[in-house]
Every structure is written in C-alpha cells, then in structure tokens.
Amino acid sequence: MAKLKDIAERVGVSISTVSRAISNDANRPVNEETKQKIREAALELGYKLHEPSRSVHAYNTADKRVVCVVPQHLMDDHPYFSTVLAGFHKKMEELGQPPAIVRTCEEIGDADRIQLMLRETGAQGIVAISWYDKELFELMQQAGVAIMGVSLNDDRLNVPVVDCDRILSARAAVRHLIDQGHSRIAYIGGPAYSKQMESEERYVGYKFAMLEANLEVREEWQMNTGWNVDRSFSKLSELLGGLSKGQWPTAVFCASDMLAIPAMRAVVENGGRIPEDIAIVGMDNIDVAQYTTPPLSSVSVPKYEIGRVAAKSIVDYLDGHFPMATKILLPCSLIVRESSRHTRND
After folding, report:
1. Which run of H or of E encompasses 193?
2. Distance CA 129, CA 159 (A)
3. Cα–chain-centroid distance for residue 271?
4. For 97, what's the count of Cα atoms within 13 Å in the CB-facing half-sphere?
5. Is the pLDDT of residue 190 over 70?
6. What whole-number percentage of the chain has pLDDT above 90?
7. Mean pLDDT for the chain?
8. 117 half-sphere exposure, CB direction, 13 A CA radius
9. Residue 108, SS3 per DSSP
10. What pTM was computed for the model?
11. Which residues contact 233 (CB under 8 A, 6 or more apart)?
C-alpha cells in the first residue's frame, strides 16, 4: 500500500507538503502546480484521496478532524517519526476519516497560535508526537480537545500515550550485553520531558538491568547528549580519549540508533574495534541499522503500528466507543547483529 513517504519521494517534496496537499490545508496551502503533481502521483501509486472540493468544515459529521503536532526537527525524513506518521495517516484513511493536518510545535508554540489553529482547523483531537507542553496541553483540554501523546517517554506526564515499552526493552538490551559477559556498560541518551535524563524510560530500563545484576553504574559513563547526534560522537570520543583501552567501558547501550551510529564512529576513530573492544546496541531498528559497519544490534520498535494504533484510539474515543486509555504499550524485540555478537571472557 502506498504511503505519504512514497508520494513525497515520487514528487520530490517533503512528507509534510504531501500531507498539507492531500488534507487541503487552508492555513498553509500548497501551490496548485505542486498539489496537482502530488495528486497525480498519489493516484499512480494507488493512494486513496478524499475529494478536494470539500472544505475543512464540510466533512460528514461522523468525520473527525485530527491534527498531528510534531517538532520541526522530527518532520519529513526522520527515520523513526516519518514511519509513525505514515502508519497514522494510513489508518485514518482506512477508517474513512479526512487526512490529518500536520503542524510543527514551533508553529503553534503559544496560546494565541493554539487557539487560532483550533478555530481554523476545527480540530477535535490532537495527536502530540514527541511533543509536550503542560500549559498548552491544559489550554487545549479546557477547550474540549482530546489529546493523545505518541512517544512521550516520561511516566510523570498526565496524558494518554501510545508507545512501546521502553523500560522493558532497554532492560532486555542491557541484559543481552550482560549475558555476553559485559559488566562495564556505558549509556548514551537524552532527557525526558522533565528535562532530566534520570526519569527517561530508556535510562530507567538501563539502570534497572545494571542494578539487578549488581553492576556499577558509573556517573562518568552516563552521557546525556540532549538527543544531539554530534554530542553522541563528541562525548564518547572525549571519554575514550581520556582513558587507556583497559579502562574503557566494554559495551555501550544507546537510547536510539541515531545516537548509536555516531558512537560507533567514535569507537573506531579512537582505535577501537566493534564488538571486540566495545559492543554497541541501539534502539528503534531504523532501516539503516542493518547497513552500518558492523551491522548494529537494535531494539526493533513497531513504529508503523504505533501510528496506526494512535489513529484508531483517538477516533474511537471521539466516536464515543471507548474511553481514552492511559497508556498503550506495544511490544518490541531485540535484533542481535554483529555490533554486539561477541562473548567476553575477561
């Protein structure tokens, strides 16, 4: 089945442009020439389009207007979130709902712009993808708008969430490294929405596995990158460069593949071998993980399914069929590849 990403690649535009074109987004319209190319590509690829003549407010009363809000840096070609969005859009189509409108959180970053967006779109539901703002969420809830979070990895947030079980998944990844004979295991990640790495679910899973095995959690081996890939490379390079090889951690668990790939480069540039000197495991199992050198072990997250479940859940809630679940967690699986397939005997 064709996805928004397929249409975007065919036309040579971004996924957000395709989304705005097929949803007839009046607030950020796509020029007619580009819109026509997108429609032609969609038809060629077998993507079902809603009638463009209908305005935002002219859909059947059974239709639900839903807005997806995503941070700007996660839009378009991000290997994780573009797949989540593709699953979401496809399920909305299958449910016979109008295409979801996509906004970046930067575009609606204050109370006035939130209220303007709600008036212009007639939104009944907001799907917040990796975005949380306590004050703005409360404002939308007071306006009677349903909110569902996707990939909001902090148990202290008071909002329904669809995601995978990141605590259990991180724990399984670290236990795999422990089973391979590793005891000196570092962590590379970023903060939760509380701005603290210690409350982020993948870090909680890492620490749980370490303490469960009575292993030391060294403060200097806990690297908070702020989810910045350059800092993953620089922080691990700085750590390794300041130690002799015999003092290195023998394994690193990275909270995402996007952080794991620069970490792999940091090991190699500091004269290390993967996995003989340092084993590395990532999370998300993005497509490129299987093509790194060596191929990257990673937790496979059901990204497309997360998007589909989020769409079904918010539409069911808006239809009055089910109450909004507090948290829906989909299962993950660890894919072991060469970056961690090495048993240590020391």
Report:
1. none
2. 12
3. 32
4. 25
5. yes
6. 45
7. 86
8. 28
9. coil
10. 0.76
11. 262, 263, 265, 266
Is residue 85 within 8 A of residue 3, CB to CB? The reply is: no
User: What tens digit of pLDDT does each residue of 18-61 get?
Assistant: 877 877 665 567 777 888 888 888 888 887 665 443 444 444 44
Task: Quote the CA–CA distance of 172 and 177 in Å, as a whole number.
Answer: 9
pLDDT at 341 over 70: yes
Contacts of 304 (CB under 8 A, 6+ apart): 83, 84, 86, 87
Q: Is residue 235's pLDDT more than 90?
A: yes
| Contact in structure between 237 and 263 (CB atoms under 8 Å) | no
Cis geometry, peptide bond prior to residue 302 (ω within 30 degrees of 0) = no
Instruction: Give yes or no for a cis peptide into 275 (omega within 30° of 0).
Output: yes
Q: Could you report the per-residue pLDDT of 257-294, keeping only the tens digit for each?
A: 999 999 999 999 999 999 999 999 999 999 899 999 99
Cα 29 from Cα 52, distance rounded (Å): 12
What angle do the packed helices 4-11 and 32-45 form, to 10 degrees? 120
Q: What are the backbone dihedrals phi and psi of residue 235, each rounded to the nearest 5 degrees, phi first?
A: -65, -40
Average pLDDT of the segment spanning 317-324: 78
Integer Cα distance of 54 and 36 in angstroms: 16
Per residue in 298-310, pLDDT (tens digit) is 999 999 999 999 9
- H-type helices in the chain, by residue range? 4-11, 15-22, 32-45, 81-94, 111-121, 134-142, 166-179, 201-212, 229-241, 257-269, 303-318
Is residue 282 within 8 A of residue 232, CB to CB? The reply is no
Q: Report strand pairing: 66-70 vs 101-104.
A: parallel
Percent of the chain at pLDDT > 70 equals 89
Per the listing, tokens 């967006």 go with: 117
Mean pLDDT score, 9-15:
85
What is the C-alpha to C-alpha distance for residues 285 and 339, in angstroms, rounded to an integer? 13
Contact 253, 223 (CB under 8 A): no
Helix (H) or strand (E) holding 128: strand 125-129
Is 213 exposed, middle or buried (CB count within 10 Å of its CB: 0-12, 13-18, 19+)? middle
Cα 70 from Cα 61, distance rounded (Å): 26
